[in-house]
């Protein structure tokens, strides 16, 4: 990262590094292999973002959004509410069919927020090279956000396969994760299409 880019992004970089360090220590002492794995993935992800930012030229909106998403994810697996992790916390009983089929949980809000941010990132990267219509651009960005959502589920699946116990959940959890990934991606796509004057740059 050049000095100019460091000057532009040092605040989210320091903020992100700080909470990753704190949560890393916490998960190591707790012996939580699942979230140690997630910390490692997050570190690699942010290294990729920072290593390519002079080419992608992501906005502060995207960088701060990604940083906040990471914080929510780390907190979701460690902060205890009512005797369970924050990810399992039930915010509103919009739909309750028993077991994992419950809407609305903190986990689902984080998924929607995270993949809204992912769609914004894909939009900012794609629009520098895209010459088609705005509608097609935001559609492609939304598909990119959904693709990243699928990769996220693969990361969670890897945790289930290679670790003795996780808090990932089963089929309904995965399905609802994908639904809320789509909710976030579609919301951001609509915002980008109907609000072209939003200053994301």
Automatic annotation (TrEMBL):
Q: Which UniProt keywords apply?
A: Membrane, Transmembrane, Transmembrane helix
Which superkingdom, per the lineage? Bacteria
> Which positions, given as ranges, span the membrane?
12-29, 35-56, 68-89, 101-123, 135-155, 175-194
The signal peptide annotation in the UniProt record is none
Q: Which InterPro entries match?
A: YjdF-like
Q: What is this protein called?
A: DUF2238 domain-containing protein
Name the species this protein comes from. Answer: Candidatus Vogelbacteria bacterium RIFOXYD1_FULL_46_19
Upper classification of the organism: Bacteria, Candidatus Vogeliibacteriota
């Amino acid at each position: 990262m050049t000095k100019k880019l460091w000057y532009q992004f040092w605040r989210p970089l320091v903020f992100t590094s700080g909470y990753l360090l704190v949560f890393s220590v916490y998960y190591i002492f707790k012996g939580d292999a699942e979230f140690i794995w997630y910390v490692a993935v997050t570190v690699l992800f942010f290294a990729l973002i920072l290593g390519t930012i002079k080419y992608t030229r992501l906005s502060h909106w995207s960088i701060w959004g990604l940083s906040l998403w990471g914080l929510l994810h780390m907190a979701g697996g460690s902060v205890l509410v009512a005797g369970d992790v924050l990810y399992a916390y039930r915010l509103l009983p919009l739909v309750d069919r028993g077991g994992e089929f419950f809407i609305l949980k903190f986990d689902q809000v984080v998924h929607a927020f995270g993949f809204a941010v992912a769609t914004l990132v894909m939009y900012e990267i794609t629009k520098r090279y895209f010459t088609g219509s705005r509608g097609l651009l935001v559609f492609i960005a939304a598909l990119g956000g959904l693709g990243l959502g699928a990769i996220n589920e693969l990361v969670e699946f890897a945790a289930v396969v290679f670790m003795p116990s996780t808090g990932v959940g089963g089929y309904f959890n995965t399905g609802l994760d994908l639904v809320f990934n789509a909710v976030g991606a579609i919301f951001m796509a609509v915002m980008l299409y109907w609000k072209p004057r939003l200053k994301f740059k």
